[in-house]
Amino acid sequence: MVFSVHESWHKLLLDEFKKPYFESLMAFVGREYAQNTCYPKENNIFSAFNHCHLEDTKVVIIGQDPYHGPNQANGLCFSVNSGVAHPPSLVNIFKEIASDLGTAYPEDGNLERWANQGVLLLNATLTVRANEAGSHQNKGWELFTDTVIEKLSIEKEGLIFLLWGGFAKKKAKLISTKKHYILTSGHPSPLSANRGYWFGNKHFSKTNKILMENGRQAIKW
Predict the structure, then answer these.
(1) Catalytic residue among 15, 56, 65, 108
(2) Active-site residue flag, 65
(3) What span, in angstroms and rounded, lies between the C-alpha atoms of 133 and 66?
């Protein structure tokens, strides 16, 4: 399977691409895409790394699986293609942004605009079979993305990790709290949000406050 990751990530990840588990993972993904409908499109599998370059990375948001419905997943966690109806979790993210920042509810669900500002939108699993949530879990993706988080923690300083929900919070053990900031809350999914675990976390204003205190440009959410 042919894949492309922006050159800024090569030094950090090139060794990983050569490991047996990753080669097996790529062979699995290649078979899946040849035999089934899978998401996102092949050329978007590594979009998180292609829109957010290593040297620009300031914020990391961790998701779990890509959306598994038609035309939704575009390789960035929580993001959908422009013009696609916003899934429930994204609706709640946008509601919190509007409430937290006092801005209008964002119309475009494509979060490339965040990624281009240095927000790494990283799913733990980067591919999925259509209409089968979790179908590509435990094939090697999690080992790869955990390594990305670990290496970011080692190589960078002052990153802000937004860990939403129980799954993402487990990634905290991979991150040095001496070098980085970790903000946690419930997941933006309706189940969690409606129980009071999401709304009011003010993660977007808190992130910008940390960035500006460190002399870095705020994110235009």
Answers:
(1) 65
(2) yes
(3) 8
